[in-house]
């Protein structure tokens, strides 16, 4: 597997390219960049900073990965971007370096960032995350595995989005989104559990029923969060998904979207 760099591209001699990497015309690859085997960087894309892109990814036309964070405190110190394997970064999406020296902005494996999506400094995305067109994240956002964020949504800094949740397009997310739920709007309104997504991910009917019951305890009984967490553990013991929901709720700093 040979490396193919178009004559109209610029690749710094210090950059590390794996076997089978393809760099299209007009792309720019900086000196501290490492790109895994089989990855393709599209025309006029910029990969810069201390960036590591995994294997078999596709960075499309005009995407920018590893640019300095949009943070006035940043003074050029060494910080990182890590992109996992089998990721798609569509046209003009952006992923920025972390702010603090030695810290990392991270995107997991099998993720898709659609066109014009922005992953800000110090964000952490899990695996199989889908970020639709023009989603805008502030810094330090965490998005867990298998979550989907609909297009044109805005996510406040430090917000967490739980696993297997789905956020409808055009939403304004200022507080944490619990695992397994669906919501949309400005302000966002809860819409029950993401039952279709859970079924597609092979959650058993029994587990889906337990998650639905857990949702009703947390969001429909008009309990405080601490009371709801206690009820979750008392009424639905020994179910890992319920324990994850309870732990997510009790560790929320910004508060839950309810």
Concise structural overview:
This protein is an alpha/beta fold and 258 residues long. The chain has helices spanning 195-200, 205-220, 225-235, 240-250; strands at 4-5, 10-11, 16-17, 22-23, 28-29, 34-35, 40-41, 46-47, 50-53, 58-59, 64-67, 80-83, 88-89, 94-96, 104-107, 112-113, 118-119, 124-125, 130-131, 136-137, 142-143, 148-149, 154-155, 160-161, 166-167, 172-173, 181-185, 188-193. The strands form 4 sheets. An 11-stranded mixed β-sheet has the order 1-4-7-10-13-16-19-22-25-27-28. Strands 3-6-9-12-15-18-21-24 form an 8-stranded parallel β-sheet, with no helix packed on it.
Describe, in plain words, how this protein is organized in 3D.
With 258 residues, the protein is α/β, with parallel strands linked by helices. Helix content is 17%, strand content 28%. The chain has four helices and 28 strands. The strands form four sheets. It has an eleven-stranded mixed β-sheet. An eight-stranded parallel β-sheet has the order 3-6-9-12-15-18-21-24, with no helix packed on it. It has a six-stranded parallel β-sheet with strand order 2-5-8-11-14-17, with no helix packed on it. Helix 2 runs antiparallel to helix 3 and helix 3 packs antiparallel against helix 4. The longest helix has 16 residues. The mean pLDDT is 98.
